[in-house]
Backbone:
DNA sequence: CCGATGTCGGATAACGTTCTCTCAGGTATC
DNA sequence: GATACCTGAGAGAACGTTATCCGACATCGG
């Protein structure tokens, strides 16, 4: 009735380190040493134990390791697994984790601080060795608390915390690249679609991009021509943006949507009104999501090299797990990708 | 020098069930009973213990639970976290897991059988209570082996295994919906873009969709007009498909791309040749990914209701963990979503 | 030839839970 | 008022691993 015999299929017992030790004729302590390649084992013994592990198809039981400290697993918290950018980050991360002993597990945290906090706690409860938080919505205080328990690397949010590592794109520069491009095309009156929900928190990309936009406009002496449209970064928010712009007395001839998803919403809304970019106005996004490159879309955008961001985050985390004390903050250089949604202003807009 | 004192931040020790028990003045055994709301605790004690848990911010240590069996966590293996359809599945899954005690962790398994196997093993090593495998590339034999160790629900692959549960869309029906639609529009010669890499394995959606296409064409007495284009389901594969179709003597007036991603690649390639759907030929995809609905894309496609698929998979898995013996196989009804890439054949194509 | 030093291997006590089993006390039954 | 039964509470042994300590032996310098 217990598991000694009865499971429907002849459930084969998993080999433990004790089995390995017995099979190799050594103590479990020694087998463990081989497993961790710790100090104090002869080559002969090492070989014998490894052969036994092979023979028994031994794989360490992670919870058991977790009870003694390390699980050799790092957790990644993302708002939603459906984000092309997050996927690039995961890829980069995986590429640095693969050669190490570490493994990656992802937790979908949702779109509000409370559920993200819960997801993070669950990751901690699993005794992960380190955490990668992608564009987290949690408060700085919570972040600080978490980083006291476990090494943390924040990706995408500009934090300057002394206890949390961070990797992000230089969104200030990214905004400048877009503005420079639009101005070079001859635009003067330029709009920016802001994400009002979170713009107040200065460390978030949303507000850094806005600040970068305003600063770049000022550098071109175009502060008076900067038009901020307040809505939300989502497909629906993009649609709203189009309507808001239509209602303007003096509409811009080019719009920087702040994020690809918003630009896509705008394109969709324009399309439904039989208009398009750049005919109605030039349009630029941010993120270089895969969809932006599809022919009929052809969105001008900013590439953040998610792969590189992920790889850097992985390296930082591994270093931190390895014992580095002080936090490190990386700022990666974005690049402008010009496609077909930006062009010189149309005559009627001059 | 050890952790009794020295960590840089005043690292607060995590409360264990022993602490809770002491705080409440009961035995750890009783505290554990309250935690699992097991039989044999008075209401008074239950209340006291729960108050202590609250006070100490107690959260069970999952690895420790794992050592005794359950971890209250289910694992989901996906090829890549960047897939809009997977995200819908995860959403549906989360919605049934939330009210339960279970939590979800996702492992990105990659695009080949070997690395997916590795990801699955890692999930097992973590002592997950159950596994959701999304469109796995692993062999039926491996699947059988895994399902002997842990409850498994396969999503997206049509399996009839007696030991593995499955949930998938009725791809055969989906193909028929597309063909019926195209024929109703007046098309007779219709192409299907096949995914040659995996088409041989009859349980995979790729081959079921192909079979469904051929059967539907036969039902319309159009077997002679069915054109199968052999390439790959990816953006690049879609581009190839366009070139292959161009090389045909007697090209179809409508093409069923088999998957949205392929259709998008085709649209991109057509666009670069200053052509488009449905002018060049009608085009339909499969999956109803979010991007398909964007105005300038407007792809006619088949909706599989990923949310419902995920929710069903979650329910099945929970039942299975709960002890259901025999496997269950669900087939969900897909729906056609008509947008702008399909239209009656253009005169010259008649 | 003796003590000091170094190397390799093993015994063993945790780690935080679960769960079976035992026990104490109360209540019902005759 | 003795016996059987129930109920609530606790003791304690796992689970699979790690890491500290300890001992045995070999080597080396004087």
Residues:
């Amino acid at each position: 009735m217990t598991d000694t015999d009865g499971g429907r299929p002849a459930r084969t017992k998993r080999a433990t380190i004790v089995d390995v030790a017995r099979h190799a004729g050594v103590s479990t302590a020694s087998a463990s040493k081989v497993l961790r390649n710790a100090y104090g084992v002869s080559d002969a013994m090492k070989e014998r134990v490894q052969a036994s592990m092979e023979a028994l198809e031994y794989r360490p039981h992670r919870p058991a390791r977790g009870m003694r400290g390390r699980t050799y697993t790092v957790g990644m918290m993302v708002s939603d697994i459906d984000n092309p950018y997050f996927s690039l980050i995961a890829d980069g991360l995986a590429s640095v984790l693969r050669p190490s002993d570490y493994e990656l597990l992802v937790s979908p945290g949702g779109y509000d601080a409370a559920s993200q906090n819960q997801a993070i706690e669950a990751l901690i409860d699993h005794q992960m060795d380190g955490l990668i938080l992608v564009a987290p919505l949690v408060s700085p205080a919570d972040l600080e608390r978490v980083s006291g328990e476990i090494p943390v690397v924040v990706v995408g949010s500009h934090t300057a915390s002394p206890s949390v590592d961070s990797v992000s794109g230089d969104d200030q520069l990214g905004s400048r690249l877009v503005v420079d491009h639009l101005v070079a095309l001859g635009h003067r009156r330029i709009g920016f679609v802001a994400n009002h929900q979170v713009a107040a928190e200065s460390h978030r990309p949303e507000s850094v991009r806005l600040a970068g936009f305003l600063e770049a406009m000022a550098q071109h002496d175009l502060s008076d021509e900067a038009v901020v449209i307040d809505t939300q970064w989502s497909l629906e928010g993009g649609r709203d943006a189009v309507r808001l712009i239509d209602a303007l007395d003096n509409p811009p001839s080019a719009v920087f949507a702040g994020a690809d998803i918003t630009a896509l919403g705008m394109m969709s809304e324009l399309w439904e009104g039989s208009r398009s970019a750049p005919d109605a106005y030039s349009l630029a996004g941010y993120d270089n999501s895969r969809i932006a490159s599809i022919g009929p879309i052809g969105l001008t955008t900013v590439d953040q090299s998610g792969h590189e961001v992920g790889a850097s985050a992985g390296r930082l985390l591994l270093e931190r797990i390895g014992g580095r004390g002080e936090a490190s903050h990386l700022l990666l250089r974005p690049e402008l990708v010009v496609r077909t949604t930006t062009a010189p202003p149309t005559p009627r807009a001059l």
